[in-house]
Write a structure and sequence with these properties.
Length: 215
Amino acid sequence: MARIPLSEVRRFCIDCMTAVGTPQAHAVSLAEVLIEADHRGHFSHGINRLEMYVRDVETKTTDGSAVPKILQESAATAWVDGNNALGPVVGNFCMDVAIKKAKDYGVGWVVAKGTNHYGIAGWYCMHALKHNMLGMSFTNTSPLLSPTRSKTPVLGTNPIALAAPAKDGDSFILDMATSAVALGKIEVRRRKNESIPMGWAQGPDGRPTTDADLA
């Protein structure tokens, strides 16, 4: 299997995003989280997702040039409008605000609206580790999950992530979907024309399936 230098992967991601009008700094923010996802083994949220981000900016579903802003804040909290910007741009902005507030007041809670897919949730809580802080990151998603005994998706996979510093860099990091598996892992199997394990998903009839195309 051919090995591609990390610098080339980064360049490719940035070039793809700037080609559809994304500012360089925003493209870099996206490239960093995608590369980190692949590096950590979350291939469902790495370069696998690049096409989605390019398409969303190209079709104006996402505003690649938008900048988030604080709508309202207190000493330790903030409410942010993402202005439909790229998810990683909003996520980084929110975590930076939260870290600053935590340094000043002991805790920082920031919530955002008007944002988009932001990659792996763990990327953001890991920022806090650099400051010897606990970090948490949560997000909702589109309806993808059916309640028990139902075949209609009404719940999100709603990932949660937590990072806690420890000695000698041996930090604790949890990054998980609240469903049996993240949707992206099914998408990867579909691209490879592979079946999925029983218990990962159900088909349109509400019964468990191993067919990634029906999941």
